[in-house]
């Protein structure tokens, strides 16, 4: 019996959500950070979407956000010409890294000792977080503003994307190894360490390349312009979202479209799988984050599949159960709204 996808809606932001990132799996679960044009990046429990805290300090739109592997540090990139590093446990700002233009992207090395940044000034910068007073190393070569920059190959190389070019750099020599040129704007880039796979989206295309050589692996065409795509940790599926407000799920091996869902009320800007692959998160122009199940109907996080007793003679109907929600309340919600929505709403000042 087919079950209906019921996303969890995480509200709290007041402007479009433009970037999100998961931490690795820690003893306390995994975590999710979101970047938003309201200038207030938020930290949430990854499997439920429960709000943990908001990082306050930026004076402009936040374009990029990331967590280190164990979720002890966060980094954000903003339109106020700064990147900031935060203590993700206490929420305290640890350092502000001044730039000469808008910062779009940030990424930690695996040991969290270095931070990579990129932005509108076309330069890649590498900061030694143990020596915040030291000048960063700079790598030049991009001809337009940098949209995304990521460490790869155990931090020995760097991947970066500007408007229509993806470049691979050697960290030791600070020189370009290879580049890819596209005939339209690159909208997103994701690096998968297991297998060294690079996921690139541009126009309606979702392309997969070797992160080591940039050689093409395969590519898929979507029915709409795609802004972001993510590959499942087991490389079974990929999800993508874009301008038509829909999320698409594809079989990675065959390219077959398996499912598509419309839940957002605006274009989707970012989508990422959780580290355990059980869900994927999407961020949209509508100001919300939504969490979607990879396997619909599975009991996980706040999703609970409830089936009536077999001897009741009734057709089994899947239900979504939430903590502290009575059966009567669920039926009332379901009668008023076709979607059961869990909303994690912090107190956020306009």
From TrEMBL:
Biological processes per GO annotation: negative regulation of transforming growth factor beta receptor signaling pathway; spliceosomal snRNP assembly
Keywords, in A-Z order: Kinase, mRNA processing, mRNA splicing, Receptor, Repeat, Transferase, WD repeat
The organism's place on the tree of life at top rank: Eukaryota
WD repeats: 55-96, 96-137, 139-179, 261-293
InterPro entries: WD40/YVTN_repeat-like_dom_sf, WD40_PAC1, WD40_repeat_dom_sf, WD40_rpt
PROSITE patterns linked to this entry: WD_REPEATS_2, WD_REPEATS_REGION
Protein name: Serine-threonine kinase receptor-associated protein
Originating organism: Sapajus apella
């Amino acid at each position: 019996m087919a079950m209906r996808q019921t996303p969890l809606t995480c509200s709290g932001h007041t402007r479009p959500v433009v970037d999100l990132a998961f931490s690795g799996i820690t003893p306390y679960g995994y975590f999710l950070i979101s970047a938003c044009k309201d200038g207030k990046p938020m930290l949430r429990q990854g499997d439920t979407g429960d709000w943990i805290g908001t990082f306050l300090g930026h004076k402009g739109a936040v374009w990029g956000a990331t967590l280190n592997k164990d979720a002890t540090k966060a980094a954000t990139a903003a339109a106020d010409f700064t990147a900031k590093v935060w203590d993700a446990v206490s929420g305290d700002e640890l350092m502000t890294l001044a730039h000469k233009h808008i910062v779009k992207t940030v990424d930690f090395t695996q040991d969290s000792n270095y931070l990579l940044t990129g932005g509108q000034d076309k330069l890649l910068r590498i900061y030694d977080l143990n020596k915040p007073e030291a000048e960063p190393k700079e790598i030049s070569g991009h001809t337009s503003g940098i949209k995304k920059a990521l460490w790869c190959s155990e931090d020995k190389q760097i991947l970066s994307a500007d408007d229509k070019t993806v470049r691979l750099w050697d960290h030791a020599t600070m020189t370009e190894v290879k580049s890819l040129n596209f005939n339209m704007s690159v909208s997103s880039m994701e690096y998968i360490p297991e297998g060294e796979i690079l996921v690139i989206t541009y126009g309606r295309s979702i392309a997969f390349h070797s992160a080591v050589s940039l050689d093409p692996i395969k590519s898929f065409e979507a029915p709409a312009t795609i802004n972001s795509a993510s590959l499942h940790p087991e490389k079974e599926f990929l999800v993508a979202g874009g301008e038509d407000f829909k999320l698409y799920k594809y079989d990675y091996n065959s390219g077959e479209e398996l499912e598509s869902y419309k839940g957002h009320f605006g274009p989707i800007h970012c989508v990422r799988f959780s580290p355990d692959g059980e869900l994927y998160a999407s961020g949209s122009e509508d100001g919300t984050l939504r969490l979607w199940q990879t396997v619909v109907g599975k009991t996980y996080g706040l999703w609970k599949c409830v089936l009536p007793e077999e001897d009741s003679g009734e057709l089994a109907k899947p239900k979504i159960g939430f903590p502290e929600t009575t059966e009567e309340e669920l039926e009332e919600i379901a009668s008023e709204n076709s979607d059961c929505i869990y909303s994690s709403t912090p107190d956020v000042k306009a």
